[in-house]
């Protein structure tokens, strides 16, 4: 296995949406989602000195919720002004227990938390931009001020918020790596017979995003 030495100052771990509502028993559970916690814990206590996190933070009437579209069900798609939007069960409602960063997450090295999806009309998968792909979250400015050059992403879900974050980070000029065993996917079926996970990996590969396992990452 090729080892990847980390620069303690300019390599950051991005912890994406590690929240109870995305865990088994939550409002929008990702299968095996709680398995990311020990892996991310090892990364935060070992090779990474610095990290940021994202937090889904929706108003109760967010337009990405199927409950706001009479006659529609979760996982259907609707057209919103910025494009196609998957409808979700109500989840990560501001101030609710399901929206908190998971209690099992050691936050000692998490130095910034980016809340996203708090604007009612626009969903937000990416850590960098809302789903109109224009409205910034402010994360890019923070990372540039911090001198970050390489980003390693972990969390939930691989094919949505992790993948969108990785795509935007690559387009913004960061070297991006997804830590595979520190993520879990939803893998929704697509009309072409594929699924959202396979499609996400293809998009990321085309942008030069790398994939590694956590045990390949070592202190520099």
UniProtKB/TrEMBL annotation:
Q: What is the name attached to this protein's record?
A: nicotinamidase
Query: Broadest EC class?
Result: hydrolase
Q: State which pathway it belongs to.
A: Cofactor biosynthesis; nicotinate biosynthesis; nicotinate from nicotinamide: step 1/1
Looking at the record, the residues that make up the Isochorismatase-like domain are: 15-187
Give the family per the record. Belongs to the isochorismatase family.
- This entry's Enzyme Commission designation comes to 3.5.1.19
Q: Which InterPro entries match?
A: Isochorismatase-like_dom, Isochorismatase-like_sf, Isochorismatase_Nicotinamidase
**One BP term from GO:** pyridine nucleotide biosynthetic process
Q: Which domain of life is it from?
A: Bacteria
GO-annotated molecular function: metal ion binding; nicotinamidase activity
Question: Gene encoding this polypeptide?
Answer: pncA
Assigned keywords, A-Z = Hydrolase, Metal-binding, Pyridine nucleotide biosynthesis
């Amino acid at each position: 296995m090729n080892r990847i030495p980390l620069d303690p100052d300019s390599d950051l771990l991005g912890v994406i949406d590690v929240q109870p509502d995305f865990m088994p028993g939550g409002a929008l559970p990702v299968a095996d989602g709680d398995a990311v916690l020990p892996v991310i814990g090892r990364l935060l206590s070992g090779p990474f000195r610095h990290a940021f996190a994202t937090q889904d933070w929706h108003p109760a009437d967010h337009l990405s919720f199927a409950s706001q579209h009479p006659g529609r069900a979760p996982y259907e798609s609707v057209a919103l002004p910025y494009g196609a939007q998957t409808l979700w069960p109500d989840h990560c409602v501001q101030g609710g227990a399901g929206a908190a960063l998971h209690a099992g997450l050691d936050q000692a090295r998490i130095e910034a938390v980016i809340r996203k999806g708090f604007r009612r009309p626009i969903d937000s998968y990416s850590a960098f931009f809302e789903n109109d792909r224009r409205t910034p979250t402010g994360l890019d400015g923070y990372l540039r001020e911090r001198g970050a050059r390489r980003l390693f992403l972990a969390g939930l879900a691989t094919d949505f918020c992790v993948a969108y974050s990785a795509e935007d980070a690559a387009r913004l000029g960061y070297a991006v790596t997804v830590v595979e065993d520190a993520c879990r996917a939803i893998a929704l079926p697509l009309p072409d017979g594929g699924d959202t996970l396979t499609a996400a990996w293809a998009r990321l590969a085309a942008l030069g995003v790398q994939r590694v396992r956590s045990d390949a990452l070592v202190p520099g």
